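Predicting holo structure, copper (II) ion bound.
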Amino acid sequence: MKTIKIKGMSCQHCVMAVARALNAIDGIENVQVDLKTETASYDETRPLDMELIKDAIKKAGYDVAG
Ligand SMILES: [Cu+2]
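Done. Tokens:
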């Protein structure tokens, strides 16, 4: 399980948008997004480029910290 920090989430709608963006990526499973800790956790079923994940989150309107 990987955990990344997400910036810009303010409500449950944002959580859903981030979860949807991650779930749309082939190779990502078991997505969990937490508003309070501003994190997203997931499993990779194959090695994924972090830039791909950052891009998907950016397109949804949020940012990955770090
Ligand atoms: Cu929101």
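The first helix runs from residue 12 to 23.
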